[in-house]
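Re: export button greyed out
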Amino acid sequence: MDIRDVAALARVSIATVSRTINHVPTVDPALAARVWKAVNELNYLPNTQARALVSGHSRLIGLIVSEITNPFFPELIQEFEQAAVSRGYEVLIGSTNYEPKIMEICARRMLERKVDGVAVMTFGVEEFFLDRFAAEGIPYVFIDPAPSRPMSSVLAVDYLAGISEGVQHLAVLGHRNIAFISGPLIRRSSLSRKEAFLRCLHSIGLKPNPDWLIEGDHTLDGGRDAMKKILALPHWPSAVMCSNDMTAIGVQHALFDANLRIPDDFSLIGYDDIHLAEYTIPPLTTIRMSCRDLAIQAMENLLYHGHPKARSAQTLNDAAHSAAAPSQPFAKPDEPFATISTRLIVRRTTGLPHNALQDLRQAGPTKKMPPPSRRPSRPRGSIKP
Amino acid sequence: MDIRDVAALARVSIATVSRTINHVPTVDPALAARVWKAVNELNYLPNTQARALVSGHSRLIGLIVSEITNPFFPELIQEFEQAAVSRGYEVLIGSTNYEPKIMEICARRMLERKVDGVAVMTFGVEEFFLDRFAAEGIPYVFIDPAPSRPMSSVLAVDYLAGISEGVQHLAVLGHRNIAFISGPLIRRSSLSRKEAFLRCLHSIGLKPNPDWLIEGDHTLDGGRDAMKKILALPHWPSAVMCSNDMTAIGVQHALFDANLRIPDDFSLIGYDDIHLAEYTIPPLTTIRMSCRDLAIQAMENLLYHGHPKARSAQTLNDAAHSAAAPSQPFAKPDEPFATISTRLIVRRTTGLPHNALQDLRQAGPTKKMPPPSRRPSRPRGSIKP
DNA sequence: CCGGCCGACGTAAACGTTTTCTTCCGTTCA
DNA sequence: TGAACGGAAGAAAACGTTTACGTCGGCCGG
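Workaround output, generated via the alternate export path:
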């Protein structure tokens, strides 16, 4: 069943059918009605391959992530899928698992399928595989601030805002000794987060202790190892900020293993606000980067870059069945590249610093607490200030 | 740059180029060499849309999952992606979020893109949207044992094996009172797991206590609520099996909230062995269903169903660059639909039952323990049998 | 009242492949 | 030696659209 059947049933030419389903405004309403009737009667769906072949646009968007099993990415993928589908696009997902060879295969897959754009959310460095996209005139966006290249653009994440909120939150609670576990510093986004942290520290008059600036690798194990390093130091910070949530969860494990409590012994802040952060024990205070903003910005960026007038294109679905109406506001054409906002989500891993708690305990009316020890036992049941 | 450029450079017809890159064996080796040389020189990639249009095969496989942010699915997606790419296919992912309306949109997307097959991994009931696939002659597979339909097949998961291992593991430890938190019983896979549990119980001479058979919903919150119900009962089981890992993690939270220890107070077994199970506190004993088996079986099933001879098709990539060679063994054509195996992964959430521990404590040489209470305090630091 | 113009619809070409059919050449057998 | 056959390469049709172009009709202005 193809466009010819529809044309025959509606007693028009195939050109008119094509124009109708593409919402060309010059079609006579009476004819259009006949066409739509035929379309619905036959349950006609246009052949996307043929469309793509002749129009030159596949309406396919590539999304390359570094590790789909890292909980941050599924949430991004979900938003991305919605952003794409609501605009009549389909998403091709590639997961590189940090391996350059797989990255190359991903790039090849995207090229073969003639994607209309690629979003590279890989926090990675293997960017040279992407030169081919520029050569083919395929736009692509980075989240990592990479050197500018033809056809590419970079999503502006406002790392500072959220981290600043976090540092100030800790400062208000009384923390002066704050550690930071970064991601791999070879990645620019990791570096950006670390620099934002240092700048915040400076801006409130605190000096960073180099011992408390650990380089992690954005994995749970990396976070655990980093925290173990900190615990091996003679002097401890009272709070730890992490470059992502998986690192923070690793820190939670390290503290659990060391029989230390959160937030009584250490305050902890993550980054990303992955779904899971809400469900750790205790729930993780963290900085949220809006996946939705990120996905929408990436999509708009790609579409705008490629075809300035193609935005808000309607699909057959939208018109015929009024399904999947874009629920998110579109960025204005004139200023399409807003920054992606971040903000602090306060949960249960931040509290008063240890020494403040000591004071409270000693001042407490009911009972005298044991002297603070490096390895306090776990008398659960609330010392609430 | 298209096939004509290659043909011109290699001084052959486009038909010969086509035959060469498709590995038609009748091509003269000398000509083939010229063609491959031209292909590499020009960095030629065939246009997938054109290929699909004329051949009728999009080399696109749909994968519909219920919730991409549920950690089980990214792991499945990863395996699926690999299984597909290594066979020269691309994956189109749709996440329904349990909403029938989105399921319908997913189905429509897949139909529009003319997928060669659909894997429905949604554990869901909205199957009637899929009739259209049968009507279009598109094969699809279920993981949920659904009533057989034309063009559809069902993946045979050996639920019994893993659950049996789990129950026996508990029995050997001395557990006689085992609860089971199921998934929504409207889903057949949930029902299968529950029935497998009951059968195992019966086979080792244990009787199920109806109070300890709770229906959950496969979410963390559902697991927490279910465990709270159990804790509200006058008599407690000594071990809990869960229908999936998220439920088990919810149970961990409930027990943490109730100040109870795992595995000292309760043993716990999950199901799925999601990535995260390894990193919960303590690491979760669980039953692994091989995502890889599942993905490979689904792919083979779809390809076999559609085109018995199409299996192990070679792609341009494979031949020209010898990339992405399938590392997994292919199922034999004669018996393509093996069952998907499950097995127990023992970690740290299973141990001797409470009363056995009591005995051990009382018999212990060093010190006398306080009498067992319903809400033991948390003296961390090792009562090791 | 007639000519030109504009707008709507249909015809046909184009998109880049695969695949069928045809052609041509070489080989083999009568 | 010639005819039939087989195999390999080229010519051309086909896939289902979009879109440039042509055509026809109607309307408006001269």
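Confidence is low (pLDDT under 50) at residues 306-336, 365-385 of chain A. The button fix ships in the next patch.
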